[in-house]
Design a protein that fits this description.
Blueprint (H helix, E strand, L loop, with lengths): L6 H11 L3 H8 L3 H9 L6 H11 L20 E2 L5 H22 L17 H11 L10 H7 L3 E4 L7 E8 L2 E6 L5 H17 L8 H16 L2 H7 L6 H11 L3 H10 L5 H9 L1 H4 L15 H8 L1 E2 L2 E2 H9 L3 H7 L10
Parallel strand pairs: 2-4
Antiparallel strand pairs: 1-3, 3-4, 5-6
Helix pairs in contact: 1-5, 2-3, 6-9, 8-9, 11-12, 12-13
The protein binds zinc ion.
Zinc ion binds next to helix 8 and helix 9.
Length: about 350
């Protein structure tokens, strides 16, 4: 029995590619009205059109007749500038795909139960200190973040390199926290993005009455306090603010020079003029030569292990792609397996 065409899968496929309705219609060779009707479910494409849609969207035919895709709740994107609709749709589609994959894996694997505390009644600095204590990080630098997050049940997936304009976003779905992160950014920047999203997850889980800008600010403060807790940060800060001293100190905490200097300034531990001078120093802005960036891509150890292992003679990666009804590159895109070109 062949499965029925599912209108919501067509929309998911279109979002996955960031296509506009008109664009998809032109490529398939039909009117925009037809595609709209297929997506609304008021008309059903012919067999030949389903085949053509699958070709144009680069998905297996079965993708268009699979189960209803799950929802991703409204999110706050960490992005550079204003986000184009195509980029937004691609980012959200990555989240839907991640949820599908995650459900499938969870029904087959032992996984950490999510145990993120709800810290929405605390100020961001207090929330960061509280989480550091709960997670026994003490006064130390935060260890590699993805394994740490995963050990607390946070699902971390990648956005795939066509999504260039979004750094990260996060959401709770059925009480499971998700973070999607752009792997084409530098490792230190990604670490900061992940902490920012962690801030959203613990601070903004409940519907609290604050606007978007406030939430963004709170997540930034959380990330800075979580990565660089005030007391040990100030104790370890160099007494002379030379480029070399700043560079060494910021490596200790695993943060960019920009983030380190900003923290020094916010805690009033550096004169404003010196902060400005150092912020402009090109050597401190150059992360491409940072040895900390090499060799440790900070990806999901859980996904890597799971997808590499074989069950019933089938490699996990292939079984997962078959379950999602996508081609392998689309699975790789959300599982840190294809990072695309590195950009700073
Ligand atoms: Zn945010």
């Amino acid at each position: 029995m062949s499965e029925a065409f599912n209108p919501r899968r067509l929309r998911l496929g279109r979002d996955l590619r960031g296509h506009f309705l008109q664009e998809l219609a032109a490529r398939v060779g039909v009117s925009s009205r037809s595609v709209r009707a297929w997506e609304n479910g008021t008309a059903t494409p012919s067999d030949a059109h389903v085949t053509r849609l699958a070709e144009v969207l680069a998905v297996p035919r079965a993708f268009l007749s699979a189960v209803e895709p799950p929802c991703v709740p409204p999110v706050l994107f960490q992005s550079r500038g204003r986000l184009a609709t195509g980029q937004r749709n691609m980012a959200m589609a990555a989240g839907v795909t991640a949820r599908l994959l995650d459900d499938w894996i969870t029904s087959r694997a032992e996984r950490s139960v999510p145990d993120l505390p709800d810290l929405s009644t605390l100020a961001p600095e207090e929330a960061a200190a509280s989480l550091r204590e709960t997670w026994s990080i003490g006064d130390n630098p935060v260890p590699p973040l993805v394994p740490l997050l995963e050990s607390h049940g946070v699902r971390v997936y990648s956005l795939g390199h066509p999504v260039t304009a979004v750094d990260a976003y996060s959401f709770h779905a059925d009480n499971v926290p998700f973070i999607l992160v752009n792997t084409a950014t530098s490792r230190l920047r990604r670490r900061a993005c992940e902490c920012h999203e962690l801030g959203h997850l613990v601070l903004h889980n409940t519907a609290r009455d604050s606007d978007m800008r406030t939430k963004e600010m709170e997540a930034d403060v959380f990330a800075a306090s979580f990565l660089m807790p005030e007391e040990p940060f100030l104790q370890g800060a160099p007494s002379t603010h030379t480029i070399d001293a700043i560079d060494e100190a910021r490596r200790t905490w695993g943060v960019t020079a920009t983030a380190y200097l900003r923290r020094l300034r916010d805690l009033e531990a550096i004169p404003e003029w010196r902060y400005r001078d150092l912020s402009a120093a090109s050597r401190l802005r150059d992360e491409s030569t940072d040895p900390a960036l090499a060799g440790d891509p900070d990806k999901s150890p859980f996904l890597e292990r799971w997808l590499a292992s074989t069950r019933d003679g089938i490699p996990g990666r292939e079984a997962a792609a078959a379950c999602l009804r996508v081609h392998l590159p689309d699975l790789d895109a959300i599982t840190f397996a294809s990072s695309g070109p590195m950009v700073a």
